[in-house]
Design a protein that fits this description.
By secondary structure, this protein is of the alpha+beta class. 37% of the residues lie in helices and 20% in strands. Strands 1-2-3 form a three-stranded mixed beta sheet, with helices on one face.
């Protein structure tokens, strides 16, 4: 038998598009997904000077709405020095060319290490 939840409380337990918030909370504490590990490995190989790489599968959060794999990439590397942001993003896109074919979306944040 399902527990009774007042209407006001029920709306707090649901996020955008009616997705349960609990699913997102569980994901925050889970280890990396297979896709995250694969993308991270490719970026490490293509950006050996990277001082920080963070790949997050945001498919399970509210952003993609269940339309397929969507990732957010944060990468800090000396390889981006003296390059415009668009050039930095093109470098990441080129490194992930094959993986991007199977993605719904990709958010890229690049930076240069501060010394």
């Amino acid at each position: 038998m399902a527990a009774w939840i007042p209407a006001a409380a029920a709306s707090l337990l649901r996020g955008i598009r009616g997705l349960p918030l609990l699913h997102c909370v569980q994901r925050m504490f889970a280890s990396q997904t297979e896709g995250e590990l694969k993308v991270t490995q490719i970026l490490k190989e293509n950006f050996p000077q990277a001082t920080a790489i963070k790949v997050t599968d945001i498919s399970v959060t509210f952003i993609s709405g269940g339309c397929g794999a969507m990732y957010e990439i944060q990468i800090e590397s000396e390889e981006f020095k003296e390059k415009r942001t668009v050039q930095q993003h093109q470098m990441v896109n080129q490194a992930l060319k094959e993986e991007i074919k199977g993605m719904h979306g990709l958010r890229i944040f690049t930076s240069i290490p501060k010394h």
